[in-house]
Amino acid sequence: MNQRPLSPHLGVYKFAYTMSLSILHRLTGVAATFGFLALVWWLMALASGPDAYARAMRCLGTPLAKLALVGFTFSFVYHFCNGIRHLVWDTGRGLERAQARMSGAVVVVSALLLTALFVWLGCRALAVTP
Amino acid sequence: MSLRSPLGRVLGKGAAGEGVGHWWVQRVTAVALIPLTAWFAIALVGKQLQSYEVMRGWLGQPWVAVFALLLVLAVAWHSKLGVQVVVEDYVPAKGPKTALLLISTFVHIAAAAAGIFAILRMALA
User: Fold this and answer.
1) What CATH number is attached to the domain comprising A97?
2) Cα–Cα distances in Å, from A31 out to A12, A36, A86, B3, B96?
3) What is the DSSP letter of B48?
């Protein structure tokens, strides 16, 4: 039973950069799950009242939380862009090697630019004090 | 020679007995999440996040609350299916696999319940 091959056979392929994008899609998906849990925690704080919300926002202001927020931003944005790439593949389009490499590059560049944009917008939104 | 029974072929439910249900719902929630997450992310960074009154007022609006509810539901479902695939692929031992799948299911349902409760409380207060 334990000798049966398991999908997705990570060890048997020659490394290709499109492969790392696929692995990154899973990693960012799992990271985005933790981002979702953080979002729910934030919603609960907001629903609990001004004191709980102030505590939650102080918590989000710590260096470690800021780092996590940047990580969640990249994870979500990358998963969003690469998810659209996957949905296009599901229609049977863009599966040729050259096309997949090209769309992969578009996803990586878009994800990095959007991460920078959202981190900048987020910092600006957080800097405004009531 | 195929070992599949004629009935099995017609039902098309495969070895797991679920057919393409998992795969399809993953896509349906993915499509729903494109506009929902884009709207929420763009709206969020345009708000005064430090102000309790501003954020509470925003999420208390009827349509904002409805779309936030849809967002929480779709994310929870999509995330539950995704984590399930990752666990099934990388955790070969039956015991730990089943335990992780149970934990993931419970955490996702609890998170969805908390998210829905929080939004409803703000919208109906």
Assistant:
1) 1.20.1300.10
2) 26, 9, 18, 41, 20
3) -
Chain A residues lying within 8 Å of B45, measured CB to CB: 118, 121-122, 124-125
Residue A107 lies in a domain: yes
Domain that holds residue A79: 63-130
Summarised one tens digit per residue, pLDDT across range B77-123 is 999 999 999 999 899 899 999 999 999 999 999 999 999 999 999 99
Let me know if residue A34 belongs to a domain.
Answer: no
Q: Which two tokens stand for residue B86?
A: 């990752």
Model pTM score: 0.91
Q: What is the pLDDT of residues A62-98, one digit of tens each?
A: 999 999 999 999 999 999 999 999 999 999 999 999 9
Asked if residue B118 lies in contact with residue A40, where contact means CB atoms within 8 angstroms, the answer is yes
**Looking at chain A, which residue has its C-alpha nearest residue B45?**
A122
**What's the ipTM?**
0.91
A-B CB pairs within 8 A amount to 101
Provide the terminal-to-terminal Cα distance of chain A, rounded to the nearest Å: 62
In contact, B87 and A55? CB cutoff 8 Å = no
Distance CA B68, CA B66 (A): 5
Cα–Cα distance measured from residue A95 to residue A86, given in angstroms and rounded to the nearest whole number: 10
Cα–Cα distance measured from residue A123 to residue B51, given in angstroms and rounded to the nearest whole number = 14
Contact call for residues A129 and B50 (beta carbons, < 8 A): yes
